[in-house]
Structures are given as C-alpha cells and as structure tokens.
Amino acid sequence: MSRSRVDVTAVLRRRRQGSVSPGLLVTLIGSAVCLVLMLLLTFVFGNGSIQAFAISLILGVLPFPLLIFAVLLLDRLKPMPWKLLLAAFLWGAGIATLVSFLFNTAGSLVTEATFGQEGGQFISAAVGAPLVEESAKGAVLLGFLLFRRRRITSLSSGIILAAMVGLGFAWVEDVLYYIQQSSGEEVLMLFVIRGLATPLLHPLFTSMTGIGIAVAAMYRNGAARVLAPFAGWTFAVILHGLWNGSGAFGFGGLVVVWLLDLVVLIGIVVLAVVDRRKVVASIARYLPAYIPTGLVTPADITMLSSMGGRGQARAWARSAAGPPGGRAMADYQLSAVELAALHRQVEYGVADQAWPMLRDAYLMHMDQARQTFLRRMPLPPAPQWTGGSLQDTGFLRRGGFQVPPPPQHQSGWGQPTGWPPPQPAYPSPAYGPQSQPTYPPQAPSYPTPPPHPAPPPQGQPASTPYPPPTYPSQGQPYPPSGQPYPPSGQPAPHPPPPSQAPPPGYQPPPPGQAPPPGYRPSPPGKAASGHPQQGTGQQEALPETRAWPPQPPPHPRYGSDGRPLP
C-alpha cells in the first residue's frame, strides 16, 4: 500500500480517488506554459548564449531542493496534496513571474519618464514591484481559498502553500538576474547574496498573505474572512517594499532590513510549530468519540497525539512488516490527523455540510491501512505504545467496524447542537455492519382519524346511533322539552337519512342515557329472542327481556274543573 491520502474533492464530488479536477488541471498546464515562455525570455535576455543560460539555470536550481525540503518539514504531520504543492510552485515560477515581468517593465518605463531614471527606478523597485509581485503571487492563494478551502485547515497549511509559491517565483527571478550579469565574478557575488543569504525572502513575503488566507479559511466570521487576506497581503507588500528600498540606504540599510526579515522568519517558524502542536492536541480531543468503532483505543490516541510516539509506531511497523508496513502505519496516522482536523472545522463552523462523507472516508482509510498491515504480518510483535499488549490497539484488530453517529458540535450552520447533518450520498464502503442513524430525524406520524360513519344501506341496522333531533310519530314532530311524550309503547324510530327510510323496529336510546346493565346490542339480523330476523336492529337483553327505552307514564289531562280526565 503506497503512501496516500483521502482526496477531499474526489469524495465530495464522487470522482475517482487520485484524479485531477478540471480547474486544477488548467492551472497546472497554464502555469507550465507560462514557465516555458518565461525561460525563453530569460534566454533572450542572455543574448542567446546557451552557456550563460545553462550556468544561470544551474545556479538557480542549486539551493532549491534543500529549501523545498526545509519547507516540507513543516508539513510532516498533515501533508498537503502534492498536486496543490505542484500547482503553487508552478504558479509562482510561471504565471506570477511572467505577469510581474510584463507589468514591472511597463511600470519602470512610466516612472522613469515621470521621475527621471534614478527616482523612477527607486519608485518602481520600492513601490511598483511589491504591489505587482505580491498580487500576482497571492492570486493563486486566493483561488485556493475559494476553491480548495477544505484543504486549508490550519495556519501551517497557508504558510506552506505560500512558501511554495514564493520558492517558484524566486527560482525563475534568480535565473533572470544571473543571466543579466556581465562577468563571472558578478554572477558569483549575486549567487551568494540571493542564493545563500536571502533565498527565503520571497517565501517570507508571500507567507504573510498565506497566513491571512488561512485565517479566512479557518473562521466563519464575515469580517475576518474579508479583512484577514487583505491584511496579510498588506504586510507582504510592506516587507517587500522595505527590502527593495533598503538598497538606497547603503549596506547598513540592507543589514537592518535583513535582520528584521530574519526575526519575522523565526516568528513564522515558531507559529507553524505551535500550530502543529494544536493539531496534535486536537487528536486527543476529538478521537475518543471513535473508540467504540474499534479503530482506535486510548493507547492509540496517546500514540497519535505525540510526534515521538508517531515516529516510534512507524519504526515498529517498518521493522515488523517492512517498508509497506511502515507506509500502512503512516496512512493510519494521516487519516487520524485528517479526521481530527475535520472535526476542528466542524467546531469552527467552516466545514462542508456533507462532512460525514469525509468522516466515513477517513475511517475507511484507517481500516484499509490496518488490514493491509495484517495481511502482510498476520502475527505481529507487540507494539511498544500498548505496553506489550496485542489487544490494546485498534491497529491490530481484524474485521469491520461500525460508523457511529457524528459527535455533537456547536456548528456554525445555524442548527442546534447535535443536529445530525444530511445523510451522506457517498456510497457505503464494504466495511462490516453499519449503524447509521436516519437523517434527518422523522417527525412522529399520527393516525388519520376515522371518517364519520356512513348511513347504513337500505334494510340493514345502523352500527352507530344517529342523534335524534326530530322524528315523526303519528304525523307529529318529537315533543320539545316539557311536552308530553308519545303514547306508551310507541317506539321512537331512527330519523331517516336523506332519501332513506329507517329500519323497522329501531329504538335508539335518548341522548345521555345508557342502556341498563346486562344489555348489549343484538347482532345484525337477529331479534331479541336470538332468531334471525331481517332488517331489525333490536337490542338483545340478557338474561331477561325488558322494553327499552323505559317509557314514561302518560301525561295526565285535566278538565275545566281542574280534575284529571279519565
């Protein structure tokens, strides 16, 4: 298993891992074309001398492998994708140098014609060149902020990308300066100044912009996201202008500004180291939530949270399973760091709302790394970071794992704490049973209330009594309250629904009055005696039969003398 990393953009856009996005591909090709054009212009400035061009090119290349290695030392914990590093370097060497060459040349002609040769050269070097060059170099960093913001997860990320842009710019600019010298002594002296004493000036200047870009990428505050890149670019222009203008004050001015730049450079290195420690500390903060998956244990988290422990773990894996085992451990550690950095973005409120897709990809990558190691070394020796135990590390566990629900964060999405984000559309990898929650949580469903009962068909008893507003009895309406009832024994028929007569013999109880104890409705089609009877709705009385409902005695009638009538 080769050293690899999860491609964030490929996961989110469902592309094949390792593929190059169209925008990044255009940037790489355009930068390479501009680099070739710039080298051709450099060859022309050397009066077409192949020997002068070759010597300048060699001198320009000599210090840069060591400088690139020094920059990448800051990138050991969470390496940036090589495609972004290459795009940054080629942009600085190609597009930024070509744009700066054209604008600086045109600007110097204007300033010399306006302020004279000496004044024009000073203004062009101290004012015009810093504005043009830092803008040209910072443009690609702004593009990374807009289109690759997920990759800028710390201040170190912005510093490293900016340093690569500055190194590419400084390389081509050094070749251009070397080839314009008239003698070998001048070339050698310039090499000492530019290649040995001040090789990191352009990376230093551009790092100011890179820090501003990183701040804008890490924080959700609207003002900070606008002001931080501009403030970083402003500091870059000031430092660049001080260095270019210091030559007007003699050797003393150069030394003072060089010491100032050295102090700034040391401050940037210290800032990167402190930031790296914060990233390591975030592992101990966020990864304990993934202990139930079996991918990590408390002993693993302790190992992952220490640079020394990480190095010892890689050495153990390399000694147990050879270089492939060491690369598998490196992949395991890298995915753990990426996972912690992802949760850091979630907490700051700048993560993509589809971040669970990345979380699952990082977990899958950790599982693939340990399975690769175990296939190569089925019976590994006990690791040091577990105290000699083979059971106390997730790196040596076989089988799949379950993806837990996302830990709760105070996210910046305007959602309550712990609100689960949308379910990832990333295809489920083949890593054992999963226990995915439903996203978003469904509201409880309530049963639809039953409809009002429809009238019974003609000739069938009613299953639910209808309210008895009025009914005809001997051609009269139902008597209102306080009036005499119908004659004794006369049933109160059910009010017929529209265009339907009531079933014969139906006797509903009055409203608010329940049947006496021991009564229940007779089944449809049966009479009170238990024998079938079509079209009746009589009530079946058990164990004896009574008239229902009980009829009140007839209201007495009185004559004119006040005596009751017979």
What report would you give on this structure?
With 566 residues, the protein is mostly helical. Among the domains are: 18-280, no CATH class; 294-396. It has 13 helices and 2 strands. The chain has helices at residues 8-12, 22-45, 50-61, 64-73, 82-147, 155-179, 184-197, 201-218, 222-246, 250-286, 298-304, 307-348, 355-376, and strands at residues 519-521, 539-541. Strands 1-2 form a two-stranded antiparallel ribbon. α3 (50-61) packs antiparallel against α6, α4 runs antiparallel to α6 (155-179) and α5 crosses α8. The longest helix has 66 residues, at 82-147. The protein is extended and about 140 Å long. It starts with 7 loop residues before the first helix and ends in a 25-residue tail after the last strand. The model is unreliable at 410-446, 466-476 and 522-550 (pLDDT under 50).
Question: Strands, helices and their partners?
Answer:
Blueprint: H1 8-12, H2 22-45, H3 50-61, H4 64-73, H5 82-147, H6 155-179, H7 184-197, H8 201-218, H9 222-246, H10 250-286, H11 298-304, H12 307-348, H13 355-376, E1 519-521, E2 539-541
Antiparallel strand pairs: 1-2
Helix pairs in contact: 2-5, 2-6, 3-6, 4-6, 5-6, 5-8, 5-9, 6-7, 6-8, 8-9, 9-10, 10-12, 12-13
